[in-house]
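Practice problem: Bis(5'-nucleosyl)-tetraphosphatase [asymmetrical]
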Amino acid sequence: MAVRACGLIIYRRLQSAPSSKVTDSIEYLLLQTSYGTHHWTPPKGHVDPGEDDLQTAFRETQEEAGLQASQLTLIEGYKKELHYPVRGKPKTVIYWLAEMKDCNTEIKLSEEHQAFQWLKLEDACKFAEYEDMQATLKEAHQFLCSKE
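Answer key — structure tokens:
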């Protein structure tokens, strides 16, 4: 049976000059793990018994980044499922897209992570070294751009 995890790709919009494109003011939240290769990832984690996928995504975001569901706006119409092996076992990770209501809200990391960064798409893709995560970030960004 595949391991199942869920999380949120969280972004914020910075106040920018009226002349700049809205999409240039978007930054994505990535957390650096305090274990393994210290890779960078959006908040995510394993589904607990009796929990649905979206509940897991919000719980993990609260545990790992200190963000309550009430501080986020879930973006309708975006959901991405990734499939990849971890230690020889299949893993499924489902991401939703969520916007910070207040771009200045403090991030409070758990012991699972040692750092966080708000990054523009290009930098977020450099930090997220896995190709499928890079592709997911680009796809989410494209989705947001198409809504403008």
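Discussion: The mean pLDDT is 92. Students who identified this feature from the tokens alone can consider the problem solved.
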